Amino acid sequence: MQARVKWVEGLSFMGESASGHQVLMDGNAGEKAPSPMEMVLMSVGGCSAIDVVSILHKARQDVRDCEVKLTSERRDEAPRLFTHINLHFIVTGTGLTDKAVERAVTLSAEKYCSVSLMLGASVNVTHSFEVRDERHAPAA
């Protein structure tokens, strides 16, 4: 896998993946775009959410929505590493069971999510979830 990062201006940089996708990053506390650390946080959520939805689909579960709310803690001093990340999954569907969602979250955390497993070598990564049945969801 390859990528490149090119300086745009100030502390803004454009990242480009080998597949040609671009993303702006900003070192000014996310003034113009996400900071690199925010990108890492979103990456672990995206990686794990892809796993969870894929696993649930393979289990023939009727998934209608999946959201991951990420919270984190970082060291106060440099380097400002993550010390804790929690991924809280909110999975909505029809007839979803806690057991199926728990299995998908656990498989992602322990076997499939490369980003989470890589971070887990130095960060306390935790997972939680809730299941919402679309048949009983309040009207928007």
Helix content: 25-40%
SSE succession: EEEHEEHHE
- Report the portion of residues in β strands: 35-45%
Radius of gyration: 17 Å
What's the β-strand tally? 6
Residue windows where pLDDT falls under 50 for at least 5 positions: none
Strands of the biggest beta sheet: in what spatial order?
Answer: 1-2-3
- Report the end-to-end length measured between terminal Cα atoms: 42 Å
> What's the shape?
globular
Question: Could you explain the architecture of this structure?
Answer:
The protein has 140 residues and is an alpha+beta fold. The chain is 31% helix and 39% strand. It has three helices and six strands. It has helices at 36-58, 98-112, 114-119; strands spanning 3-9, 12-17, 22-26, 62-74, 82-94, 124-133. The chain has a three-stranded antiparallel β-sheet with strand order 1-2-3, with no helix packed on it. Strands 4-5-6 form a three-stranded mixed β-sheet, covered by helices on one side. Helix 1 (36-58) crosses helix 2. The chain is globular, with a radius of gyration of 17 Å. The model has no long low-confidence stretch (mean pLDDT 94).
